[in-house]
Design goal:
The chain has about 350 residues and is α+β, with helices and mostly antiparallel strands. It has 11 helices and 6 strands. It has 2 domains: about 90-200, no CATH class; about 205-338, Alpha-Beta Complex (Toxin ADP-ribosyltransferase, Chain A, domain 1), CATH 3.90.176.10.
Amino acid sequence: MMFRAYIVYVIVYLLIGGNQCMNSANKQSATKQQATRQNSQGSLVRQNSQSNSQKQEQSKPVQQNAQASLPKPDPNAGQQNIPASSSKKESKADIFARKALDTMKEVDARFQIGSCITKAREKAGSLGYINGASHFAISWISMYSRYCPINLALLEDKDVNNFPFCLNKELRCMYHTGRNSQIQAVFQGAANIIDMSIRFEGTKQYKMVYRGMTFNPYAGQTAFVEEGFFSASISKDIALGFAKGKILMIVERMYGLYIADYAEDRFSRQKEVLGLKNSYFEVTDRITDSAEIDKLFPNLKHYLKKPTEVIYVYQKSNANVDGVLNIQHQQSLQYCEP
C-alpha cells in the first residue's frame, strides 16, 4: 500500500512539474517571440526612419540644386533698350517744369540775369510755390513783370536793356533776317515758356481793360497782331498815367491772366492782365475829337492828363493773321533794323 501510494505521488509530481516547465518554456518562448517581434518592428521603424531621413537628405541637394539653377531676378529687367526718359513716364507738368528750368539756364548763360531769375523764383516761393510746375510758371511770369537789366554788350540793340522790353522787340522783329539769329533763338525759347506759363496758370476773359501809350505802333491799321506779349490794366487811371496825355487804348474784350500778385512789388500797382503772344485785335473805333473825349472823362483826376486819342479794340480769334502780319512787317522795317 505504502509503495503504491508512493508511486502515485511520484507520477503526480512529474505531471505537475512537467506542465510548469512547459508553461515556463512556453512563456519564455512567447517572450522571446514578442521581443523578436518588437525588435523586428523597431528595426523596421528605424529602417523606415533612416530611409525617410536618407530620402530627405537626398532631396535637399536636389531642391538646393533646383533653387541654384533658377535665375536671380534682374532689377533692370524690362528696362533694357528703353531710353532713360521713358523708364518713368513724365506728366505734362513735369515736362513743363524741366523745360522751364532748362530755359532759365540758357537765358542766364546768354544774358547773365541770374539775380533777376533768383528774385523771380523767390517771389514764387513767397506765394507758397517752392517747386514744381506752378513754381516755374509764376517765376517766368514774374521775370516778365520786373526790371531785369541785361548788359548792353550782350545785346544787338543798344537803346534798351530791360529783359521784357528786349523780349518783345525780338518777337516783333523775328521776321527780320538781318538780326542776330542766336539772340533771337534764346528770346524765342523764353517767349515759348512764358506763353506756356500763362496757359498753365489759366486765362480768362476780361471786359474793359486799358492800355496807355505814348505812340501807336499800329497806326492806320484796322486790325493788328501783338507778336510779343500784350498787357493792359484793369485800372483806367493807371493806364492814363502811362498815356501821359497821348493815347488810351480801351480793350473791350481780352483773354489773359491777372499777374499783379506775381510782379515785382513796385510794379504790382499796375494791376496788369497779361495776354498770350500773337494775340489778334480788331479796331472797332477811334476818337480824336476833343469834345468827344471830354465826355469820356468828365471827372478826370487833377494829376492825370486827358488823352488826345482814344482807340477801342476787341480781341478775336480765327482771323486773317497772315495778311495783318504782312502789313505790320512792312511798317516796322525801320524799327527792327539792328
